[in-house]
Amino acid sequence: MNAKTNDWQERFKGVLNETNQERLKEIAKTDSFFRVREAAIEKITDLTFFETRLKEEPDCIVRLAIVKKVKCEKLLIQAATLDSDLCVRKEAIKKLKDVRTLTFLATSDPYEAVRILAISARLSQSTLEAIALKDTSIFVRITAIKYIKDKDILATIAVFDTEWKVRKEALEYITDQKIIQGIALSDSYWYVRKIAVSKITDISKLEEIQKTDKDSMVKTAAKERIEELSK
Question: Can you give the residue range of the structural domain that contains 203?
């Protein structure tokens, strides 16, 4: 392969046919075009090579190719926390197992997408609860809610969160009829009340809602729920 040719497509084709690992490493470090370096990265089998290359590679697409290949937790932590490109960071987070780093990212990262991706069942319940109660992003809070086990925390969120989408998400996991009925009667947003109505098992309470709720969609939902329970 002629590495000095000015035609990157020819160099790219040459990389696809190259088998010498040392030659591929040299191309991955020195070729002037990122697609050629990326192709070389794809064929390199020596994972230790990526430790220095991840730090030195200027192009995010090539760094992304490196992250997709590495399994070393140290390198994944490095990419997840320090890389300048969001796509590289997100790919690293997907593969990351270190709970301490995931917790840091889920609670402290300035990017909403990073915090969302770092949230999983691996985080402690106290961490998940804090995120669901305090994070400034409704989508981060909603993601955390999916992993919370404490019904009292979920009830607090379902009743008091300022955003109806967050209240609705918490409501999905609540089974306490008293709490559900209270939400159906008092939530400020009709759609949350409608979801609560669909979970009520007391026909007399549904009849009350059908008579008193100001929204026609909620009234209809109560009527349909009564019919469903009366079968």
Answer: 175-231
pLDDT of residue 47: 86
Residues with Cβ within 8 Å of residue 130, at least 6 apart in sequence: 107
* Overall number of domains in the chain: 2
Overall pTM > 0.90: no
**Blockwise average pLDDT, block size 10, the chain, 231 residues:** 70 95 96 96 93 94 96 94 96 96 98 97 97 98 98 98 98 97 98 98 97 97 97 85
Same domain, 182 and 217: yes
CB 170 within 8 A of CB 155: yes
The reply to whether 115 falls in a domain is yes
The Cα–Cα gap between 123 and 105 comes to 11
**DSSP code for 204:** H
d(CA 44, CA 145) in angstroms, rounded, equals: 41
Q: What are phi and psi of 198, to 5 degrees?
A: -65, -15
Q: Are residues 163 and 111 in the same domain?
A: yes
Last residue of a domain, one of 137, 171, 205: 171
Contacts of 1 (CB under 8 A, 6+ apart): 11, 14, 15, 17, 18, 23
